[in-house]
Structures are given as structure tokens and as C-alpha cells.
Amino acid sequence: MVGVSCIVLRRTLTTLARSPTFPMAESYSEKLVAEVIRLFPAFMKDPIDWEMSKGNAAVAVIEPDGTMRGHIFGDDRAKGRWCFGIVNRKVIQVWSTGYHTGQFEELVYAGKLDEGKFGVNRPDFIGWEGSVPLLTPDGTLIAAVFSGVRGVNDIAIIEQAAAAVPGLRVKRN
Predict the structure, then answer these.
(1) In terms of Cα–Cα distance, which of 66, 115, 105, 59 is closest to 86?
(2) Do β-strands 68-73 and 57-62 pair in parallel, antiparallel, or remain unpaired?
(3) How much is the pTM?
(4) What are phi and psi of 66, to 5 degrees?
(5) 102: alpha, beta or left? (left if phi > 0; alpha if psi -120 to 50)
(6) C-beta of residue 53 within 8 angstroms of C-beta of residue 149
(7) Which DSSP state fits 162?
């Protein structure tokens, strides 16, 4: 009987959470991904980025609690899979280190950071641009990454999306 009560309570809480009278606040990651989706068509107007991606790209965000959200753009599943693989490697590194990819590697090779402190091994370094550490108003890290176009625009789409999400700001190291 206790198991049935737990199931009923869980269903009730789930129903309440989805109810319009008890709306769930969108998380930073949901807002950020939605904003990247909104901005994506404008970035595809760049002929170099269009030629590079053919409309295939990916975005991923990791919240402080490990919740991960993302989106794969385009119709080419092989290219989408490849983009998501890159996004996954980048976002895990930013989430682990709190540094932009590329910047983290530069600091390690210059002897300014010890990669072991972050649990990232040199063979696992990604090095490519496109990841952006973001901070919430209380200073909590959110890792965000885009991949599929030139690195400078991978960063630009995340930074523009973050600027449109109240409370988020880019972490500058």
C-alpha cells in the first residue's frame, strides 16, 4: 500500500508541476538553448558558416547540478552527431574547469594551471574555441557550448544568447 501511495503522490506532484496554475520557472539552460535556437537562422546567413555547416550544428548547456540541455540543428544526422560529439567534449571541459576551451589549454601549457586539479588529462584537451563559462547572479557556473560554425561565431552565438537571458553573464578569467 505504501508503494501505491508513493506513486499517487508522485503523479500528483508531477501533475501540479505541469499545471498552468503552478507554472515551473524555466531554468537558465532552457532559456539559453531557446535563445540560441532563435538566433541560429541569423548566423546561417553568413556564407562561410553556411558552407561549413550546411545548417548542421549543436548546442549544449550544463547546469551546476549536472542537468544538461541541448539541441542538434539540421537534417544531416551524421553531421549532427559529429557536432554533438564536439559539443559534449567542450561542455564537459568547461563544466569541469570553469575556463573557455582554448584558454584553459594555453594556461596549462604556460605552467599557470595544473590540469590535474580539474580532472582533465592532456590527451583529452579539446582546444577548439566555442565554449563559454557563464555565471548566474550568485556567481554559480553554467557551462555553455556551440559547435558547427567558425569558432569565433560558436562563441558569439552563446554570448549573444546569454546577453538575452536575464541574470546570465560571461565569466571573464
Answers:
(1) 59
(2) antiparallel
(3) 0.82
(4) 95, -5
(5) left
(6) yes
(7) H
